[in-house]
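A note from the maintainers: we've had questions about how concatenated examples are separated. There is no special marker in the raw files; a new sequence line simply starts the next protein. For clarity in this README we add a label.
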Amino acid sequence: MENHSAPVKAISLDKYGIKSAEINYQLSPEELHDITIQDGQGIEAASGALAVNTGEFTGRSPKDRFIVRDAITKDRVWWSDINIPFDPDKFEKLYKKVTDYLSHKSLFVRDCYACADDNYRMNIRVINEYPWSNLFAYNMFLRPTEEELDHFSQEWTVINAPGFMANAEADGTRQHNFAILNFSKKIALIGGTGYTGEIKKGIFSALNFILPVFKNTLPMHCSANVGTDGDTAIFFGLSGTGKTTLSTDANRSLIGDDEHGWTSENTIFNFEGGCYAKVINLSEENEPEIFKAIKKGALLENVVLDEKGGVEFGNTSITQNTRVSYPIYHIDNIKTPSIGKNPKHIFFLTADAFGVIPPISKLTPSQAAYHFISGYTAKVAGTEAGVIEPQPSFSACFGAPFMPLHPAKYAEMLSKKMIEAGVNVWLVNTGWTGGPYGVGKRMELKYTRAMINAVLNGDLGLYNYEDYHIHSVFGVAQPRTCPGVPTSVLSPRATWNDDEAYYKTAFKLTNAFRENFKKFEMHCSEEIRRGGPQRYAF
């Protein structure tokens, strides 16, 4: 357990333009927990965790994320509907409005940092309007020692004002909420939304620009763990694919669950000091480490509690995106510091709601680059308004909303590192089997864990024709057998019991892959282009 006592240090926010604020500096998790409850902003769950409702926004708002277009960014950022430019003059005016709004208020300030490797450390000051937002910052960023705080100098500043509503017409935003990165001023400005994920994703997005451009380091939206012999495994995947669940393993030490850097010195380091896990349908049986981490100090978001204060994990009446943040030391088996060596295995996780991608398959380097750029998963009914059947969803590099550079830049860096390190790359379908969503069923977690363990234990061996089958549509190598997994589960076609329907659906998905990849083709080599599905539907 870490020392939570608050150091005595007088600070001022005048230099930010925030005047006469009451400053609650570096409060302990217990203090923030109690203030939130006293102010009527949250309640304590039976587990001891603090439960809050983030208000109007229960998830990120990607259309309201902006980057100031200036001398640093104008020729480097991949400007698009993901990276939306913001005028520097309008930023200055909006910044003044936000800091005026925060002046004379009781604010919560935390000094912390990102990047566990000292060579890449980035000091951050987080200024929050709400106490529970500051608890999130305590959980999710790395925590300096009291001695480090005495000489702390922040590089980036996060200013978080959920209660401030922008005037879209006057302020240059799309609507009343916004999350804006200013690389010249090193500020992440967030307003109009209480969703705490905007805080961590703002800094993550900044590092996704800084690390490759200035520090020759690949930033990755992935989780990572390490075995007893020091072998590192990396798990890429979008929300809901099992990234946090599969990397949190009692038999392996957790490096981190979401954001990492891969350095030129051949190390993997965690950006964060905590975990931000989805808790929809969480159970102690399937995810015991995460379940046990939900205790005093953890922050539950948008969950429904029963009359005894227990979390109704299956209740999605507020949102499907129910969450918990907790400091990484709430997990028993963690790597300290959060640094590992070059990975031996990389897993690309996809929740294929069409039920046609093999549950595990081995990728060639060109296939790995193609699937990394594609970043495929699927949306299912109920996750978004208007989604009534499975829809393919592509997010480049398994994290497009946080990638300021062109995806091909990250893919080139990953490909180079994979080849240099001799890494094996695996595509893992944690989605549906036996048919699409609504017909088939979700892949059992015990089988997915068995497949990953087989890879890590060396049980699947090297590719050869006797042990692997080349999928006739996707061209990937799927193992014929795997310890702990029924052979029938390994072939998605066999689980359908309807070859015609299976192939029709598989071809539909390959066409979606090709259509999505068109926007990347001109930036990719012929080798990468050939990494995708080669067969076309008639």
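[label: protein 2]
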Amino acid sequence: MIRATLATTACLASLLVAAPAQAEPDDAFPTVCGDRRPSDPAPGEYGMQLDGTFRHPALTPAGEERFSFPGGAQDLFPKTKGYDPKSHVEGPIKVEASYRGADFTPDYFHTWQNVVDFDGRRYLFQYDRTEARVYDVTDVRKVKIVESLTGKDWKAADYWGAATIQWRDGHYVMIQSFEQKRQVDQLGDSVEKSKFHNPSGVEQLRGETTFKGFKVYRLDGPRRKDWKLLSTVTTDPTLSDPKPGVQQGSGSLDVPYWTGGKYMFIAVAPLDTWRNTEVPTYLYSPGYQAWDMSDLKRPKKVGEWHRKGQIAGEEAAYAKNPRCGNQTSWMGARMPFFVSGRYGFAALGGYGLSILDISDPAKMKEIGHLDLPMSVGGTEADNVDVSQYEKTGMVYVSGYPLGEDCHEPYKDVFQVDARDPRHPRIVGTLPRPAPAAGAPFADYCQRGGSFGPKRSGSYTSPGEPKQGLLTYAFYNAGVQFFDTTDIRRPKRVAQFVPSGFSKGVPDYALGNQTHAIYVEWDRKIVWVFTNDGIYAVSSAKLLGAPTLGRPLAPYRNSDK
């Protein structure tokens, strides 16, 4: 973890300068703290150290450009555009299969995944909005494409939203999120294109007719033709009918949390007034809603929660956050609650970690909160791994990098002791990944691309997560395996790092390497998703002996 110097501490403290606390008349974005956008660090303030470690900058503005430094990737790998062309494996890892190229890369930057079982065969969905694939993965070593969808295959305001799939009343049911797209043409990270200085861009974005809410489907087979739409629900409370048109708010973000029961939880900013966030390209600060899914054709909202400071009119609370005015930080939810028992763990970006009692979804109540150390830019407090909580009381909280070449603070995976959920506290971090023996670089910051944790998989996966083992997609550090059996001394035990360069990947996407994993805990297979394809990885020692053929039992509902 980077420890701030006295100068850095003074710099961060200066962000807390008193500011007027009244709400501003324009509700597109907060202006209560003025313009405190950080400057780009000077080249001498970060880079390789004499001992082979990397010094991260303490504070950086939004941006995803490449940055060179002496001994960096552009010096080490000039023939492959500044990216390491080799793969690296360390520990008891076996690569069972690899599938590279466009057929296995519907989107270079990010995809969502689900599995379903029909007629004794297992299917893997990989998708991001209009680009999607369905694979028969019954034989891990002989994966077959059974459907390929592109933009021409969808109607307006329709696409494959981030989804959960669970078993209900003898059928698979898929709930898809539909939201305001976050990578937009109207706004950008630069000062001139950001929402703070681009009123025409804000107006254009506000006028879009993107459907915002969620859709419920019954799945009678693995292909799109097998879907039956049960309901279409807007999250804009000012509308009674989700017909195409201008809708307020964000819509439902990322994968809804639902395990086939009565209640579902989503991340959402229902109205435009949920807007206190600093990120320059996004207009909303999402909180959470609870929905009664007893009748899949008529879902009903039963509860709603946000942290004070997120909504217009709450500027006094907002101004107390040291990120206020930095025109960089994501402030609010990206994912729904990460649930363990009666508790919902809310990762709120720059607002930190909140723990809610969700046993009564109509009266969700925050019982504990933890402000996390600042790590600006990049995304803070995005993922919470709760797979170990029931046994150890520990959860693992992380953000993820947005820039390349480590031109931002390192994103630690914080070990949070939540045994007393009213008083969560940071008690450690997972070890920073180090290159495998023989790698031609001393630190992953020299490999090219983004370096840091993304997420530890999906709760929608079949089987039971293994106690004492955490798996993380780590961008240019591939998949990292951590042993947390001894909670006092977590350690790295293995890594699989795919090639960081492929001629088939366009230059603008080369830095976005391993961005997702999906673990079939029942078959003991880790699927690795990169900007150049899919890999199937096993480890008899860490996960148990893999099943490379059809699963012993069909996947139905997720436990954790």
